[in-house]
Amino acid sequence: MKTTLIIIYVSFEVAVMRERTSREGCGRPRRRFLQALGGAFIGGSAGLAGCIGSVTDQRNNDGSLPSELVIGHPSPARPIYNVPVYSAFSQRMEDRGVTLKQKTFKGYTPLIAGMVRGEVDIAETSLPSLIKSRRENFPIAGFCGWTQQYVRALLVRDPIEEWSDVDGKTLVGHSDNSLTNLMLREMVRRELGEDANVEYTNLIGTPNRVAALRGGDYEATGVFESGARQAVADGVGSILAHAWDYFEDQTIAVWGALQKNLDENEKLYRIVTEELVNSYGELYDRAAEDVVADLDLTVGFPEYDTDTYVETLSAATENRVWPTDPADMLTDEKISRSQEIMQRVGIIDESIDPGSAVDRRFL
C-alpha cells in the first residue's frame, strides 16, 4: 500500500511541497520526518512569516478589504455545495468591492501545500486533510463551517444492481484525504461489513470518474451528487446509494486559511465568515430554480442540464447540507463525530483535540 509523504524544501522566500510515495525514495517514516521538520521550520509563526508571503499580505496590509479574494479548490470541477460561494457569496463580496478569484489544485495535499505557501486567502478544506495537517503542526486552521452532510453518491453500472454485487469490485474515489473516499469506506463498512472484499483506487475529478465508468474501466465510483444525477440522465449508470442517507450532521468540509492571515486580517475574515453564512441562508429562502439561474457556471461547474442542478440543489437543501447557525459550526461534538468515522475506516490514525484544528473567533 502506498503512503503519502510530504517533503518540504525551504529557500529564502518559498517553500515547495511535493507529494511522494514510500516506494519512490526517502525511507524515513513520514510522521517522524515531518515532526523533525515541524520543530525546525513550522514550529513558530515568526519563522514562517519570514519564509512565506501570502496573497492577503500583499493586498490587505493597510487594514482595508482587498480588491480580490483567492479561493483554493482541490478539484477542477465545482460540486453542488459550491453553489452558495459562486452565487450569493460572490455577489455579496462584489458589493463590498471584492472580486473572487480561484486557484485549483490536484487534490487536498497540494491544496494544503498551496495554503502554506500563501497562494490562497481561503480554501475548500476537507476535515481529514485539516486534521492531518494540524497533527503535523502545519499553520492552518478551519475558521468557518461549510457542509454538514456528504453531497455525494455511489454511482454504479451493470452488472451491479445491489450492495452484494459490490463485493469483489474496485471502487474509485477522488484522493486519499478526500471526503469521497471517506464516504465510500464508511458506506461499504455499513453495508458489507468490516472485512468487505473491496479494493479502492483514486481518480481526481467527478467528470473523470464518470468518464471512466462510461468507458468500462470501473463498475462503481463515488461522485458528487449532481454528477451522479447527470450520469443517470445520460444513461451512464444508476445511483446505488446517496451518502446523506448514512450520516448524521457533522463537520465535513470547512473553510481554512493560514493562521497568520487569520491573526493579522481579522476584519477581512469576519466579513468573509459573515457573508458565507448569509449565503448559506439564502439557499433555504429562495427557489432552487432562481438560485441556479443566478449561478456563475463559468467558474468550473460542469455543463450539466439545468434540471440536474435544480433537482440536486433541492435535495441538498432538503437534507440541510449547509449549516446556518454559527454557534452550531465547528463544534467539538460535530468534529468528534466525523473523527470517529475517519479513524474507524482508516483515513486517520488517531483523533486530535477538535479545538486545535479550528479558530472559532469569527463565528
Q: Give the tally of β-strands.
A: 12
Poorly predicted regions are: 1-53
Side-by-side strand order of the widest sheet: 4-3-5-12-6
Kindly estimate the percentage of residues that lie in beta strands according to DSSP: 15-25%
- Separation, N- and C-terminal Cα atoms: 40 Å
Gyration radius (Cα, Å) is 20 Å
The SSE string, one letter per element, is EEHHHEHEHEHEEEHEHEHEEHHHHH
Helix percentage range = 25-40%
Question: Treating each run of at least 4 consecutive H or I residues as one helix, how many helices?
Answer: 14
Average pLDDT reading = 84
Overall body shape:
globular
How is the main sheet built?
Answer: 5 strands, mixed
Q: Which class do the helix and strand fractions yield?
A: alpha/beta
Characterization of the model:
The chain has helices at residues 30-42, 45-51, 55-59, 85-95, 108-116, 127-135, 179-192, 206-214, 225-233, 259-264, 266-285, 288-294, 306-318, 332-344; strands at 4-10, 15-21, 68-73, 99-104, 122-126, 140-147, 152-156, 170-173, 199-202, 220-224, 238-242, 253-258. Strand 3, helix 4 (85-95) and strand 4 form a beta-alpha-beta unit. The radius of gyration is 20 Å and the shape is globular. The protein contains 14 helices and twelve strands. The strands form three sheets. Strands 4-3-5-12-6 form a five-stranded mixed β-sheet, with helices on both faces. Mean pLDDT is 84; it is low at 1-53. With 363 residues, it is an alpha/beta fold.
